[in-house]
Predict the structure.
Amino acid sequence: MRIAMIGTGYVGLVSGVCFSDFGHQVVCIDRDGEKIARLDRGEVPIYEPGLEALMRKNIAAGRLTFSTDLAAGMKDAEAVFISVGTPARRGDGHADLSYVYAAAEAIAAQIDDYLVVITKSTVPVGTNREVARRIRAARPEADFDVVSNPEFLREGAAIEDFMRPDRIVVGLESDRARAVIAEVYRPLFLRETPIIQTGLESAEMIKYAANAFLATKITFINEIADLCEKVGADVQSVARGIGLDRRIGPKFLHAGPGYGGSCFPKDTLALVETARAHDSPVRIVSTVVEANEARKRAMAGKIIAAAGGSVAGKRIAVLGVTFKPNTDDMREAPSLVIVPALREAGAEIVLCDPQGRKEGEALLGEASWAGGPYEAAESADILVLITEWNEFRALDFGRIRAAMKGDLIVDLRNVYLPAEVRAAGFSYVSIGRS
Ligand SMILES: NC(=O)c1ccc[n+]([C@@H]2O[C@H](COP(=O)([O-])OP(=O)(O)OC[C@H]3O[C@@H](n4cnc5c(N)ncnc54)[C@H](O)[C@@H]3O)[C@@H](O)[C@H]2O)c1
């Protein structure tokens, strides 16, 4: 199959590389010339484990190319994916669909033979029908179908998620489109991956409902964690105790500083706005949005309280700034709220992150950067763990203690064993463990 992928970001690049690995001929298109130039040189512009090797393999096999030229990239394509960004629109929280519609209109101009236009971007209910309407308006004679195919991959485990998804969701309305999708995903169909075939609206809704549910689960355990601290319970035990109930499940029950990332914050907001527009409120999700924002702000207060009420003049070493480990993505990361608040409270900040420095330098303002956790700990009064990279999980606490001036560790991910940290001479504060 000849596939064009419009938008070569975290989702488009991973999807394009994996489709080429399935044996398809793929052109990844982006309007960002610098990104395409780097990809052409075999460089991956994002950090995603395993991506570079798989990309190079498929470039070498002649199945994967890159282009800024949509017309040339779409030539002879049988399927074109829209995987451009859908950020929250400034001011009102609705998904900004301008990139999606711009891509749809650019596609319309290139339709030659029968074409399947597949939306992989996360888009609110009704968008795929509007994509079809716009293409039809631009090219009344064009032969095409529109398919909704939301993506569920997680950054940091994106290739594994794409190659072995829990399910594939496709919203479509024609047998011809179904046949093309079956060909596009043939290796996964052969592996008996569950396929959820629905109409356009249900496919769009599944993606938002899934993300809102996961965000709710995280927010739920975060609030339970706060209550645990007050009543003398341990949220780790509580999470395990409820997670083993198969009706609940153990995933997404890790208490922490609040969710961030490129998806949950904007998708929960967009769902709330869709619900408002249809006069059918999703009160739980509205509360989750509010609670999560408040939580990120509260984390700085927690650190300040642990320091005895003030961090003015204190040197704080921050381990981890990306929104989660194994990515360089900083979008909506809790660190973007916590670090400025600590600085405003008078602290001097030293940051450390295995992949977040490039993005973080622009976003986190005045701070120095250390090459590793021990360097960051040098002369620090307080050590704060925000993102649980593996590098930070097994620290030599003796070495950290010797490097630090102070003795306070604030662990916002509950990765350390309280007894072990305290035995090394630290005062230790974590989440939901009194
Ligand atoms: N990042 C994730 O983990 C994830 C997971 C599932 C779904 N999604 C969804 O996938 C979509 C893409 O997300 P992302 O994180 O890959 O975004 P991204 O910002 O990393 O990439 C989007 C890319 O699209 C390009 N682009 C925008 N308009 C274009 C146009 N008209 N022509 C060509 N290129 C264009 C941009 O230059 C950019 O490179 C979003 O809707 C997101 O919600 C993301």
The longest helix spans residues 200-231. The two ends are 57 Å apart (CA to CA). The chain has a mean pLDDT of 97. The chain has 18 helices and 14 strands.
